[in-house]
Amino acid sequence: MDRLIRGIGMNDEIRIFSVDTTDTVNEAVSRHGAYPTAAAALGRSMTAGLMMGTMLKNEEKVTVTIQGGGPIGAIVVDSNAKGNVRGYLGNPKVHFPLNDIGKLDVRRAVGTDGFLSVAKDIGLKEHFTGSTEIVSGEIGEDFSYYFYASEQIPSIVALGVLVNPDNTIKASGGFIIQVLPGASDETIEYLDARAKEMTPVSKLIEQGLSPEDIINEAIGEENWRSLDEMPVHFECNCSKDRFLNAIASLDPSEIITMIQEDGGAEADCHFCRNKVWIEKEELQELIAH
Ligand SMILES: [Zn+2]
Q1: How far is the centre of ligand 1, averaged over its atoms, from the C-alpha of 221 (Å)?
Q2: For 3-234, CATH number?
């Protein structure tokens, strides 16, 4: 079971999120049949999106869309305050040779010309939306830039996904360290210095380090403490009713075509790839009122 921890540190001047997403990302990647480069892009996005979800409260939700103009198309990730995440990408069948530092070439798959957009559903009629340019295509830096430019929260975002030769996930995880308002210059300088010499998070997860161990490595065990933890997992909330609602919003002539030509309709969830067959009688019901 994957686990996320939340903590605070540096005289309570920073907050910390650290998560193991190995099982979560493996489930998404296997549902989408993603090739390694695409799998790493989806996994990094889901890992960051998951941590963003746990920055919310109660029933709040967040959707992150990363559209960098590259061959994988848009990546869409949904998550919530309960540690549930789901995601998909336009084209999961993308793979490239390793880049010049021997890593999956996520930037080439994602592209560097586009936007990272965030939509938060924070209950009632309130929505928050923010969008920043893709600055890297490696995703971690793009989230970091988003937090800084759109939410004015300087953040270190480190994400790593390792893919096995059979396209399953060997290890996946990451952390976010956010500098709270009023943090001292010393804290910011310390974090900058640590960030420069930090072992890449993909190396740390490859060594099997826990979310706590990774933060210890990143900023020093004496500089933070854990506040709480929660299990996290892949979860999709699609259902036959949701598909029926979506079909009900179509033009009635389209529904009649489904009934006459296909004798029903097959609904396919983008997020989890589950397929649901909608019976002819259920379609007739939709146009009867
Ligand atoms: Zn679904």
Answers
A1: 40
A2: 3.55.30.10
Give the Cα separation of 213 and 25 in Å (integer).
Answer: 20
Given the candidates 3.40.50.720, 3.40.50.920, 3.90.1280.10, 3.60.10.10, the CATH classification of the domain at 240-288 is: 3.90.1280.10
Edge-to-edge strand list for the sheet holding 84-89: 127-133, 115-121, 61-67, 75-80, 84-89, 224-234, 2-9, 14-20, 169-179, 155-163
From ligand 1's centre to the CA of 270, what distance in Å?
7
248 vs 128, 236, 241, 287, CA distance in Å? 28, 21, 10, 8
How far, in Å, is the centroid of ligand 1 from the Cα of 62?
16
Q: How far is the CA of 174 from the centre of ligand 1 (A)?
A: 25
Task: Tell me the pLDDT tens digit for each residue of 120-153.
Answer: 998 777 788 999 999 999 999 999 999 999 999 9
Quick check: helix, strand or coil at residue 135?
A: coil
